[in-house]
Every structure is written in structure tokens, then in C-alpha cells.
């Protein structure tokens, strides 16, 4: 969902996250508020806690007393190498490559 919201924000289509049943009756000001909420939400899911806004800053952003900053690309949106890409790295490099599969408890 984060990756989808980011992609829509990047394409200036973040209002597509809003249910069409709700969107039809919204004023332009309300639609602008929705866009702000999406942007603030993406700020709140930044990888590093130091990049996330504190709640004392979030509230003024949501009440339009402060303009939210531009979020950075979330880690979940970073392209992932495919196994074929990894094999090409191994075949063209003299370095050894270790792949670790992590499993939760």
C-alpha cells in the first residue's frame, strides 16, 4: 500500500487512493486536505525515525498551519534485484556473493 501511495503521489494522482463514492461529494478544499493527509502519512512511514515528523509537527500539518515537507522514496519502493540480476553480478565479479534468507520466528 505504501508503494502504491508513493507511486500515485509521484504521478500527482494521489486522489486515486480515495474511494470514488466519497470523492464525488468533496469540495476542492477537502480534496486538497486528502492530498495533505496522504503526504503526511508518507512522511510518517519513512525508514529512519529521524526522518519521520514528531506528533507535535504532524498536528499543525494536518490542520494546514504548517506545510508538510516532501517525503523521501520509501524503502519498500526501492527496486529489488531479481535472482537473474544477482547471477550476472556473480559471473562478472571476482567478489563472493552471499544470499541470506531471513525467516521470522
Automatic annotation (TrEMBL):
<protein>
    <recommendedName>
        <fullName>S-locus receptor kinase C-terminal domain-containing protein</fullName>
    </recommendedName>
</protein>
